[in-house]
Write a structure and sequence with these properties.
single chain; Quinone Oxidoreductase, Chain A, domain 1; 26% helix; 2 domains; eight-stranded mixed β-sheet; alpha/beta; 336 residues; six-stranded parallel β-sheet; Rossmann fold
């Protein structure tokens, strides 16, 4: 096997490695072997990545049954992270669509590895040329909240003009994207957030904003066609009264209760509950999502909401901030 390379002075890179499950204390920023692309892979020098709530959950091995897939005692994939944007540094000999020096963005999926200076991604994976109008940071952010919320609102809920959509957790990465997307689809959008984030959610186009410290949205009977619980803090049982007669509750945070309600509502009643793991959708489908999202950024209907940008040597601090539960939008780590 041969590869085409740019200047590569050594075979090492800096990466964030998880030594076990737990708090950010289990993370170590260390020097490790730089990956070599297989024939069908490209090697990307990562310029920006993100630290997400999902990254935090996987680092903790939460929920516990996830360890059956992630690794029983510690993560099988020691280097976490999925979303990224960067520059192609080397290509395998079978590569036809990318060349050294191309700016790209996308995600690594279940291979993880984005929390490092370099990562290999298959050419037919979730990887696309980076649009010139987006920075590396903004492009990386597209692979977090926007892609997940697109899957839920466009594919699963098929939100239509005039529908009433409530977004719980409207100030987070998924929520800030969801408010913009639902509004672009013509829905009447209600965002739920804390007092400190009301102004932010209003600025994203929400028609109504509920401060959860003052009002319980689940007590508004028959109000919403879709309740998108981005943070999994509520439940179908609690939200059922607030849904219209054929309303839909959905969340990207899987729990045993949600799983039971998904099975129950398939058989009984007209209201439904749904979950989906967006990152496990087929790569061609996810690439199509990203293409649609990029078009929306070009027309001004969607923009990244980035709360903080950390340096690579601060990435453990970024994990701690995500763990605090108070982040707004996306948390970015700049590798340069």
């Amino acid at each position: 096997m041969s590869t085409t390379t740019m200047d590569m002075p050594d075979s090492l890179m800096t990466a964030l490695v998880a030594t076990g499950y737990g708090s950010p204390d289990v993370l170590e920023l260390t020097s490790t072997q730089r990956p070599t692309p297989k024939d069908n892979e490209i090697l990307i020098q990562v310029h920006a990545t993100n630290v997400t709530a999902a990254d935090s959950m996987m680092r903790r091995g939460d929920p516990a049954y996830a360890r059956l897939f992630l690794g029983l005692m510690k993560p099988k994939a020691a280097i976490g992270g999925t979303g990224l944007a960067g520059v192609v540094k080397a290509v395998g000999e079978a590569i036809t669509d990318f060349k050294v020096g191309d700016e790209v963005f996308g995600e690594t999926g279940l291979s993880f590895g984005a929390h490092a200076e370099y990562v290999c991604v298959p050419e037919d994976g979730v990887i696309l040329p980076k649009p010139a109008h987006l920075s590396f940071e903004d492009a990386s952010a597209m692979c977090d909240g926007p892609m997940t919320s697109y899957n839920f609102l466009r594919r699963m809920a098929d939100v239509q003009p005039g529908q009433k959509v409530l977004v719980n957790g409207a100030s987070g990465a998924l929520g800030t994207a969801a408010v913009q997307l639902a509004k672009a689809y013509g829905a009447e959008v209600t965002g739920v957030c804390s007092t400190a984030n009301v102004a932010l959610v209003k600025s994203l186009g929400a028609d109504n904003v509920i401060d959860y410290t003052d009002e319980d949205f689940t007590q508004n009977p028959g109000q919403y066609d879709v309740i998108y619980d981005t943070v999994g803090k509520s439940s179908f049982r609690r939200c059922k009264k607030a849904l219209t007669s054929k309303g839909l509750y959905m969340s990207p945070v899987l729990s045993f209760g949600l799983l039971l309600m998904m099975l129950w509502t398939k058989v009984f009643g007209s209201k439904s509950a749904k979950f989906d793991a967006t990152g496990m959708r087929p790569a061609p489908e996810l690439r199509a999502y990203l293409k649609d999202l990029i078009t929306m950024t070009e027309t001004g209907k969607l923009h990244s909401v980035i709360e903080r940008t950390y340096r690579l040597d601060q990435i453990i601090e970024a994990h701690a901030h995500v763990d605090s539960g108070h982040k707004k939008g996306t948390v970015i780590v700049r590798m340069g």
